[in-house]
Amino acid sequence: MKRRALLALAPAAAAAQPAGWPDRPITLISPFLAGGSTDIVARILAERISPRLGANARVIVENRAGAGGSIGSDWVKNRAPDGYTWLLASASSHGTNPAALPNVTPYDPVADFSPIAVLGDAPMVLAVPYASPFRTAPELWAYARANPGKLSWGTSGAGGIGHLTGEFMRVLAGGFNTEFIPYRGGSAVLEALAKSEIDYALEVLASSAPALRDNISRGLAVTTPRRHHLFPDIPTMQELGLEGFNISTWNVILGPRGMEPGLVRHINAQINAVLTDPLAAQRLISAGLDPTPGGSTPESTAAYIRVEVAKFRDIVARAGLRLAR
């Protein structure tokens, strides 16, 4: 099933709030460093959902970063399934890590968790330095094919969403050899791009937006099937001939495996309500996440993750990647 079809399933009727819950703070684990896009999304959600859970309810964000989100995810996996620990999972922690690093990712992205809700997604962007001679993505691909090893590119880590996006692009664009340089984070990638230390990069569009607006870098293509409202002049990979190219970064809310279904449905309903609140939605969009239209259900959340993991596993296989952390 298509991801949008999965998420178009109508959310189930909200379950009544369990008596006595919550009677202490809820911890929302952000498995990345404070200040990044995932962390910002976590704090917006925590602020907006707390009043919906009760007059004295509190959702507290805690950062447990490392290993592309795996450290914080594994910590949540081992908590009690009582509704007091949530995880803000990402395309890296629950998509690319299990696909590209199955031997070192210490959890099953679906079976080890209680899927609750999909928050939203956002495109990646193929970007070059503003002074680059490449004005279009096909020009870059043609040069790369004709000049093996001459170009270099970077993303925020090996095996992450940017890396697999770049490998998928390489395969669908006819195959070419370029030097891959992994960086420690997205800001380092954007700095390298600004200094023309690399020829191109695959990064989250929202993170790249300031550099694109300030003519520090140039966006050549976005990775989702539709152009993005922030940069309507940047074409999609599909428009440029890469049929079937559909990759986004995303966030979902999960709990430890074994949460009571009624509680899961109640939390899901409150998250869907936050996503439809205009002010909260605008803040999430500003943070780089486009809220899921129409909301999601726990069942569609599980299906969404399964589809994404299968897609990334296919990319790993097609690109012949052999990664180890």
Structure description:
This protein is α/β, with parallel strands linked by helices. It contains eleven helices and ten strands. The protein has helices at residues 3-7, 37-49, 70-77, 91-100, 137-146, 161-172, 186-194, 205-213, 261-276, 278-286, 298-319, and strands at residues 26-30, 59-63, 85-90, 113-129, 152-155, 179-182, 200-204, 217-222, 248-256, 290-291. Strands 1, 2, 3, 4, 5, 6, 7, 8, 9 and 10 form a ten-stranded mixed β-sheet that branches. The longest helix is centred in the C-terminal third of the chain and has 22 residues, at 298-319. The mean pLDDT is 92.
Offer a few descriptive terms.
325 residues, alpha/beta, D-Maltodextrin-Binding Protein, domain 2, 11 helices, 10 strands, elongated
CATH superfamily of the largest domain: Bordetella uptake gene, domain 1
- Compute the number of helices: 11
CATH class of the largest domain: Alpha Beta
Number of strands: 10
Rg computed from alpha carbons, rounded to a whole number of angstroms? 20 Å
Could you state the order of secondary-structure elements as H and E?
A: HEHEHEHEHEHEHEHEEHHEH
Secondary structure category: alpha/beta
Question: What characteristic shape results from the CA principal axes?
Answer: elongated
CATH architecture of the largest domain: 3-Layer(aba) Sandwich
